[in-house]
Amino acid sequence: MFYSQLLLSNKGALGIVWMAAHCHRRLKKDQVQQTNISSSIDKILDDEVPIVTHRILAFLLLGVVRIYSKKVEYLFHDCNEIYNRLCGLKTGKSTRPSIGVSRTNYHSVTLPKRFELDAFDLDLLEHQNSAG
Questions:
Q1: pLDDT for the residue numbered 1
Q2: Given a cut of 70, is residue 113 above it in pLDDT?
Q3: Please, what's the largest Cα pairwise distance for the chain?
Q4: Where in the chain does DSSP place strands (E)?
């Protein structure tokens, strides 16, 4: 045979990549998530692998692309789900009973004519003296 059975078998180093190239609908989410794309490409381009035809290399690269596409699809689905949950929280109604909030007139609140920070007695000196 012109390719290594150990390399491309289901339990082999590139078995999932080979399966993604030929029957990508049978891939499970766990298989896709556990596949490391960079190490798979390193194994494809490794010099220790017996020389394979360009057709097999094309199938292996197709499998890598399909696995990458599935990973992106899963990531998009997860992000979209979290986004929808966050939007649902924002528009959701509160389950707490509403407490009657009393409002006052704008003119009933007294505001100083001039804001001076020195006018406030913050008791800072007393706290510093007692701590030190």
A1: 45
A2: yes
A3: 94
A4: none
pLDDT, position 15: 85
Contact (CB, 8 A) for 41 and 57: no
Q: Read off the pTM.
A: 0.60
User: At a CB cut-off of 8 Å and minimum separation 6, what does 56 contact?
Assistant: 2, 3
Helix (H) or strand (E) holding 20: helix 15-22
What span, in angstroms and rounded, lies between the C-alpha atoms of 87 and 81? 10
CB atoms within 10 A of CB 44: 19
How much of the chain exceeds pLDDT 90, in percent?
A: 27
Residues 6+ apart with CB under 8 A from 2: 52, 53, 56
On the question of pLDDT at 82 being above 70, the answer is: yes
Q: Where are the domains of the chain?
A: 5-91
Residue 10 DSSP label: T
Euclidean distance between CA atoms 100 and 97, whole angstroms: 9
